[in-house]
Amino acid sequence: xxxxxxxxxxxxxxxxxxxxxxxxxxxxxxxxxxxxxxxxxxxxxxxxxxxxxxxxxxxxxxxxxxxxxxxxxxxxxxxxxxxxxxxxxxxxxxxxxxxxxxxxxxxxxxxxxxxxxxxxxxxxxxxxxxxxxxxxxxxxxxxxxxxxxxxxxxxxxxxxxxxxxxxxxxxxxxxxxxxxxxxxxxxxxxxxxxxxxxxxxxxxxxxxxxxxxxxxxxxxxxxxxxxxxxxxxxxxxxxxxxxxxxxxxxxxxxxxxxxxxxxxxxxxxxxxxxxxxxxxxxxxxxxxxxxxxxxxxxxxxxxxxxxxxxxxxxxxxxxxxxxxxxxxxxxxxxxxxxxxxxxxxxxxxxxxxxxxxxxxxxxxxxxxxxxxxxxxxxxxxxxxxxxxxxxxxxxxxxxxxxxxxxxxxxxxxxxxxxxxxxxxxxxxxxxxxxxxxxxxxxxxxxxxxxxxxxxxxxxxxxxxxxxxxxxxxxxxxxxxxxxxxxxxxxxxxxxxxxxxxxxxxxxxxxxxxxxxxxxxxxxxxxxxxxxxxxxxxxxxxxxxxxxxxxxxxxxxxxxxxxxxxxxxxxxxxxxxxxxxxxxxxxxxx
Length: 589
Hints:
Blueprint: E1 13-19, E2 32-36, E3 42-51, E4 68-71, E5 74-80, E6 86-91, E7 98-100, E8 124-126, E9 129-135, E10 141-146, E11 153-157, E12 174-176, E13 179-184, E14 199-203, E15 210-214, E16 231-236, E17 239-245, E18 251-256, E19 264-267, E20 279-284, E21 287-293, E22 299-304, E23 312-315, E24 324-329, E25 332-337, E26 340-344, E27 352-355, E28 358-367, E29 370-379, E30 383-393, E31 397-402, E32 425-427, E33 430-435, E34 443-447, E35 455-456, E36 478-480, E37 483-488, E38 497-508, E39 513-522, E40 525-541, E41 547-562, E42 569-577, E43 580-588
Antiparallel strand pairs: 1-39, 2-3, 3-38, 4-5, 5-6, 6-7, 8-9, 9-10, 10-11, 12-13, 13-14, 14-15, 16-17, 17-18, 18-19, 20-21, 21-22, 22-23, 24-25, 25-26, 26-27, 28-29, 29-30, 30-31, 32-33, 33-34, 34-35, 36-37, 37-38, 39-40, 40-41, 40-42, 42-43
């Protein structure tokens, strides 16, 4: 629509550049810069947050919740473009190279390919193929595979005959010994004659190589039973461990070598009914730790060396210790027990509470030989503060890395869907996570493990400015082709799309000069101001990269450009001057 107004906000976009030169080689389109000075040869560490592609141009979210994965030089993720429904997309990291892989289920319903309703693994790589689940509308939810091409994307096998399908969206895919393992049902549980229920299956990517490993819980013709429901897969000492219910021993640990005869109950830990099943299977220092309830001691930490004789409760930590977030740091296991941080070497005497000054640590992550996690502090032994970033090492002990927001009601966002190690991402020797320093939304933060090195990634304006790229962020980080990818949305338009953070190291030469640039809109005019005369051009682009307005700069410190011909929305302003290039986003409203 013509006659639109530029939203006035002089503080909206200010780019301050302190450069050692104006001769910069291969400078990318930047939203912000970090500068490092070292003698005459300097380096600029340039970071950019940008939209990968506006997949759903109708204004809705293309990504509602997703796992992302990369395989064979491509990034794969689930997205809905508003036309094809939720389908699998792939990207080479460019807008033009981000495309729908295959319209598996034509129409707006989509196949839900790779869609995540839980944190269980939705993709598996095996035999140079990417495996995922999808529903083509005919065969129900089944196992699919792709080599990254449309013609190489296919239904592996119709396991559950009919529209019900053989797999469930809660199913986990796990690669072991050249095959993908998963739980599946080979007949419709309500209309079939005989079926195995949800049982252990494997696939090498061919129809004939996809088969039932073992019918652990034989159902006969008892319609509606769920089978043994195998899940929580973990390879250890050459075998695949998982939990399953054979109908006799409740849910217990099982192992398989991939054969029917080699699929066996590992140990009947609890001969009587109990509340908790074995979970959080984690290898550390040659042993596998897990939490379970033996029916006597409630949920406690257990350990195994791979033998029944070497499997035992590590220590009775009290009623319902409920170990979670099991994480290996060196040769020690760190975990949360009830609300405290614990450490274990696998022995009773070597298992103890590290500290009780924090409350409910979550998202345990090892980075640069230290443990990082989110926790709230206990003030005066009674009150509980906000969640902040903490660290632990045997040398430094437990300490808060940085108090991001002193407000006791605001801090790092630890929404339950983020209570997992993937809440942190390691990229370019820094750790990334999301946090709120104003209580109105979350932003992307980075840390090198020090207080001064824990900062909000520059370029994010935050509330009440509408351009807060990380206000909403769901699920996943993925490092691909030198960039950090993540789903995110804007404050005023919480449609979720895939964004990326890129970092480029750039060499510079002499001639120290400080640049302060400002861009703002008012009364249908875009104003660019600089403390140094600019010689070059100003470009206004839409979000897809199309050039809409060009304005030439001739030794100017201020340029005023009419923009009344533009519709309201978000635009990219690019300024070139003296072999340098700077850019940022503006809102025309």
